[in-house]
Amino acid sequence: MSIDIENLKRTASQVRRDIIRQVAAVNSGHPGGSLGCADLFTALYFHIMDHDPSFNMKGDNEDMFFLSNGHISPVWYSVLARSGYFPIQELATFRKINSRLQGHPATHEGLPGIRVASGSLGQGISVAIGAALTKRLNKDDKHIFVLTGDGELQEGQIWESLMFAAHHKVDNLIAIVDYNGQQIDGPNEEVISLGNLHDKWSSFGWDVLEMDGHDFEDIINTITKAKENKGTGKPVVILMKTDMGKGVDFMEGTHKWHGKAPNAEQTESALSQLEETLGDY
Amino acid sequence: MLDKYTYTEKKATRDGFGAAMTELGRENEKVVALCADLIGSLKIQKFIEENPQRFFQVGIAEANMMGIAAGLATTGMIPFTSTFANFSTGRVYDQIRQSIAYSHKNVKICASHAGLTLGEDGATHQILEDVGMMKMLPGMTVINPADYNQTKAATKAIADFKGPVYLRFGRPGWPVFMPEGEFEIGKAILMNEGSDITLIATGHMLWYAVEAARKLEAEGMSVELINIHTIKPLDEEAILKSVKKTGKCVVAEEHQRNGGLGESVAGLLARNHPSPMAFVAVNDSFGESGKPSELLDKYGLSINDIIAACKNLR
Fold first, then answer.
1. Which of B64, B75, B94 sits opposite A161 (nearest CB)?
2. Which of A126, A159, B232, B278 is the most core-located residue (most Cβ within 10 A)?
3. Within 13 Å, how many C-alpha atoms sit on residue B242's CB side?
């Protein structure tokens, strides 16, 4: 498949607009990490994953994605809507009463595309392992993707899950770390140092790749390489360097927009930096 | 009616779980088992031997086990997690809450060594709060069978039931007195009809309640005895029907009074038919090391405690 990078960039621009508009409309939500992962989500849902927007919970014979750091829900909702899982107009209900678009992703209201609730951190890799085990039992050769934050790696359950995946040779699982170096209280290095993440994952028995989370060609090539781990008996992680807040100048590279919505003036400024490519909802 | 509840042998409820898992392994290819380094205690060796591909040893990592189970359930398997009750609930409450209960995953949380009857290991392992924690979770079914036969039947029944279930059982050998094979989730079993008092029991305490009821009947009190194996959803109709007839109720359980079955029954009666009640349960205390029967005596859960509660209730 040839890669239409320009088209992916245009989609990502709209996804970033959707993020800003969702968060601004309710004056709550998490724009920083959402913007930082917009390119990854766009690449996954519009190029990499073999997935079916008619949505089957069990995900037989399709690639499946799990989001462990559920607070970046706006970016997920945008790509799900834009790839046909539910009406784009429904993005206007984000975080409002009676909405399927909960603050953190949930299955409770039956939103297509979501397979498990997340928000309380550290749980997503475990869940993804379970799905990967089923695929192995069913001889289903598709992949399971799971995204975690970097600050989230401070949760103990993460390391339980890494040990399991290596021991049980879960090689149809691709974990991606949103390595933006920031968390709510500040840079990781000030809050609780993550140390050498590459060596940590590697010593837990995982193959470790790195990529630039804002370079579509690198994202696609690295994930293609990660898929080749299937059959080697080793799980694989991609440390994805991103800039929190990417695409909106005043939000970039700081934890200050982790969980804060822009005001009217800031929203206008943000949207002026992001081209409306697919039409706002 | 009480005459038919006798026993010739003692077997542990956890053995009933293990025996059912063996059968499920043969009958239902969607059933998978997970264990956190307690295979021998949970009695699932046979399942593992016969279905090595459908068993996952997770090691001493219960949080991860709950998450993996949620993922297996998402993709259509029927996972049974197995470890002690303490590590099946409090240790992993958030994982169960978010990944299983809120996400409505078809996970069967199977918990052995619940309560004081765990014995010598002491209070660190004798969880007496698990029913309370689990019944508070929306959509969670909570089952505490009384003996080997009922645990075996319950284990089989929950495999066919869609939704998260907490199945609580225990360590010690215990009288086997319930009939084999019958189990309807959420349906109370009327074990003796009576008119003076309603005696409700769950889990191991049911055998003590049978013995207490026999003695009370011999002394002239007419005891209606109800087996509540499913604490949630509670068979409200059966309980209300009985208490409307007898006018009072005693509940016996191997759990804290706070958060237990008795509390659920009290709430039901308060809403519908306020009646005098007594609770045979642990009263805001941790347990300690000792033999199961010694512990049940010391913490107010003996046959005589049930008898006294029934006699003293006005």
1. B64
2. A126
3. 30
Residue in A57, A130, A137 nearest the CB of B68: A130
* Contact by Cβ (8 Å): B265, B226: no
In chain A, the domains with their CATH numbers are 5-272 (3.40.50.970)
Note the residue count of chain A: 281
List residues of chain A with CB under 8 Å from any CB of chain B: 57-60, 64, 66, 106-108, 115-120, 122-135, 137-138, 156-157, 160-161, 163-164, 167-168
Indicate yes or no: CB of B99 within 8 angstroms of CB of A57.
Answer: no
**Percent residues over pLDDT 70 in chain B:** 100
Residue B1's pLDDT band (cuts 50, 70, 90): confident
By Cβ distance, the residue of B32, B56, B102 closest to A106 is B102
For residue A262 the two structure tokens come to 């822009």
Q: Name the minimum distance, in Å, from the CA of A139 to any CA of chain B.
A: 12
**Residues of chain A contacting B30 with CB distance shorter than 8 Å:** none
* Closest by Cα among B18, B218, B75 to A63: B75
Residue B62 known to be catalytic: yes
B81 neighbors B34 (Cβ within 8 angstroms): yes
pLDDT in tens, A61-96: 999 999 999 999 999 999 999 999 999 999 999 999
Sequence-ordered list of residues with C-beta below 8 angstroms from that of A274, at least 6 positions apart, any chain: A13, A14, A16, A17, A20, A247, A248
Number of helices (H), then strands (E), belonging to chain A: the values are: 10, 7
CATH tag, B9-175? 3.40.50.970
DSSP states along A123-170: -HHHHHHHHHHHHHHTT----EEEEEESGGGGSHHHHHHHHHHHHTT-
Report the sign of the C-alpha dihedral through residues B42, B48, B50, B51, in that order.
positive
Answer whether B61 sits within 8 Å of A160, measured CB to CB. yes
Is A1 a residue whose pLDDT tops 70?
Answer: no
CA–CA min distance B72, chain A (Å)? 4
Q: Is it the case that residue B98 has pLDDT exceeding 80?
A: yes
The domain locations on chain B are 9-175, 189-312
Q: How far is B89 from chain A (nearest CA, A)?
A: 15
pLDDT of A235 strictly over 80: yes
> What CA–CA distance (Å, rounded) separates A34 from B22?
47
Nearest to B102 among A117, A132, A168 (CB): A117
Name chain B contacts of A167, Cβ cutoff 8 Å: 59
CA A110-A111-A117 angle, to 5 degrees, is 80
- Identity of the amino acid at B261: L
* ipTM (interface pTM): 0.96
Are the beta carbons of A116 and B95 separated by less than 8 Å?
Answer: no
Contact assessment for residue A249 and residue A257, using Cβ atoms and an 8 Å cutoff: no
- Annotated active-site residue in B62, B211, B224, B253: B62
With CB atoms and an 8 Å threshold, state whether B63 touches A156.
yes
In CATH terms, the fold of domain B189-312 is Rossmann fold (3.40.50)
What pLDDT, in 10s, does the model give residues B115-174? 999 999 999 999 999 999 999 999 999 999 999 999 999 999 999 999 999 999 999 999
pLDDT digits (tens, 9 = 90+) for A166-218: 999 999 999 999 999 999 999 999 999 999 999 999 999 999 999 999 999 99
